[in-house]
Amino acid sequence: MILSANFPTINNDYQTSRMNITSNFEFDLPTPKPEPGSYEWWYFDAIDATGIWQLVVIFYEGCPFSPLYNNEWASNNNAALASKHPAISISVYKKGKPVFYSMSEYPEIQSRFDISQNNQQVNIQIGDNELILTKDGEHLSHELQINELLPSGDALSGVVIFQSDYNTHLFPLMKQEGSHFWNLTQPRAKVHVNLELNTGNGSHESLNWIGNGYHDHNLGCEPMMNTFTDWYWGRAHFKNHTLIYYLMKKHEILDFKGWLLDDKQSIIDIFQSGRLNGKISNVFMLDCAETLSLKGKKAKVEINQRQLLDSGPFYYRFKSDFELHLNGWKESCEGISEYIYPSRIHQKRYWPLVHMRYRYVQNPHWVQKSSLLYPLTW
């Protein structure tokens, strides 16, 4: 999407969905991915009750940001398989500033994707990090066991637990012709964080907090750039409501959806139109909208990408201000928004910079070994 200071109005009249959407625990199970360039990830984010801490953790089988994986795929190598490129990314922010970052690809032999016999539990292990997805009746409890030690000496260890009720009827499978599958089983979860953070320069901090969180699971059967041109998405937890939205563009086709959920995780409004306004640009000349406006039958939401959490040649992550107008009253909160332009992932001119951040565990970049230089790549 070529962005300028003004954008066309978004509405559902000219959307053609590229997204297959559901909310089913069975679809949280690892999926065979025989197609070269496929990917699968389990995404978690959380914000503490005070708004001081933000946490994002993603487990990958077939990391779409891996230069090695993308180079194999570009070489028409049928061996460019997701199972050979497991990875985990962990980002911890304090007051909107990064205090820990890792994006680590492990050898295939250091990963495990197991499913219990009754399909009620999934165990995913990448390096010394483990994700345990559990369904117990109508309750979900997902445990992230974190144990990540970086060459710089930075280390993060401990447990994060996401707990919520399970709404099997939130999104019955909406199957489209697209090759991207989005499973939303935990739009709002109570999160318990118990982590220890140690840095290479000798500082230590304990993270013990409770907040609200979000989990989804994505599956792609081809490289992302073949599915869409760019992608906005985000979520926010108000006192009694949760907002989820996304906007994809594939050539000239827009795919826009947004939902407002109540505290029982039932849909109370569907956003029918919206608008992108303003422009944000970084040193890589990656442009995206500064504000987003969403409008439904009952509610409207204003989103301001207030604080930059992560910025690169193909990706933004924001700590955003969300303002909800519903039934004559207004409520504000902070949430997380993201933007990606996936074709840039495959442009090799950016790979030297990516190599400084993206860690191949068996052969880390020399910058990643420096407690002074590595944080500058964040």
Please explain how this structure is put together.
By secondary structure, the chain is mainly β. The protein folds into two domains: 137 residues, Beta Barrel (AttH-like fold); 239 residues, AttH-like fold (Beta Barrel), CATH 2.40.370. Helix content is 5%, strand content 56%. It contains three helices and 24 strands. The longest helix is centred in the first third of the chain and has 8 residues. The N terminus is likely disordered.
Which class of the largest domain in CATH terms? Mainly Beta
Biggest sheet architecture: 13 strands, mixed
Low-confidence stretches: 1-9, 12-16
Q: What order do the SSEs take from the amino end to the carboxyl end, as H and E? A: EEEEHEEEEEEEEEHEEEEEEEEEEHE
CATH topology-level fold name of the largest domain: AttH-like fold
Percent range for β-strand residues? over 45%
Shape: globular
Number of strands: 24
CATH architecture of the largest domain: Beta Barrel
Number of helices: 3
Distance between the termini: 25 Å
For CATH, the homologous superfamily of the largest domain is named as AttH-like domain
Arithmetic mean of pLDDT: 90
